[in-house]
Amino acid sequence: MSDLRLQGFAARAETLCEGGRRECRARATGVGIAPEWRHATHDGGPMTGPAATRPPLPPFTSVSAVQKVRAAEDGWNSRNAEAVALAYSPQSRWRNRSEFVTGREQIVAFLRRKWARELDYRLIKELWAFQDDRIAVRFAYEWHDDAGTWFRSFGNENWQFDEHGLMTMRHASINDLPIREEERKFHWPLGRRPEDHPGLSSFGF
Q1: Residue 22's domain spans which residues?
Q2: What CATH number should be reported for the domain holding residue 194?
C-alpha cells in the first residue's frame, strides 16, 4: 500500500433526510448518525430496516474518509448499541482486543456489555490513513468503572467496507491507562462531541 495517504484535516457533510413522518438533519453521515437508526429494535430481538447504503461510500477521498471517521465517532458516543450495529454489514467480523465478534447480534451484545462497564464514555477518533475501501483510525476515550476509577483508553482500528458503505471488517487494538479524575481531558456533555471541541492531535495523544 505504497500510496497510502495520511490526512490531518476535518470535514463536515450535512444531509437532509426523512424518517417516517419526521424530518431529521444529520451531520457527517456515514458509520455514525443516520436516520435509519430509528428503525432498530431495542428489545433484544432481530433488528429490522437496516439502511441499504451508508454513505460516504468507497472508494474514499480525503474528504469522505474524514466524514466516515467523524460519523463513527458520533455513533459510538451515542452509546446506542442497536443503532451503532446498523453501520456494520450483517456478517461483519471484528477483533476487539482479544475478543472476536461476528454479525450484528453479537455486535449489539458486545456493545451493551462494553457500555455497561465503561461509564461516562467519551470518545475522539482521528483519521490516520485511507485507500480505496479501507480506513485506518487512531482514537482515545475516557471512562470510569463502577468503582469510580478513571481510565483513558488508546487504540488503533483498521476498517474495511463493502460497496454499500457498511463496515465488513474491524480490527481494534486498545490499551487502558488508569488516570486520576483531575487528569481527564474530555468534559463535553455526554453524546456527540461539539464541533468546536479540539480533536485528538490537539491533546498530543
Answers
A1: 8-41+53-203
A2: 3.10.450.50
The residues that bridge with 122 in the sheet, in sequence order, are 142
Query: Number of folded domains in the chain?
Result: 1
- The DSSP secondary structure of 123-189, one letter per residue, reads EEEEEEEEETTEEEEEEEEEEE-TT--EEEEEEEEEEEE-TTS-EEEEEEEEEEEEE-GGG----SP
- Is residue 3 in some structural domain? no
Chain Cα centroid distance, residue 152: 17
Q: How many residues in the chain? A: 205
Q: According to the model, what pLDDT value does residue 52 have?
A: 72
What pLDDT sits at residue 34? 39
Check residue 17 and give its pLDDT. Answer: 34
Tell me whether residue 1 is in a domain.
Answer: no
Low-confidence ranges of the chain (pLDDT < 70): 1-51
The pLDDT of residue 19 is 34
Listed in sequence order, the residues at least 6 apart from 79 whose beta carbon sits closer than 8 Å to its beta carbon are 115, 121, 190
> What digits encode the pLDDT tens for the residues 110-159?
999 999 999 999 999 999 999 999 999 999 999 999 999 999 999 999 99
Is the residue at 48 inside a domain? no
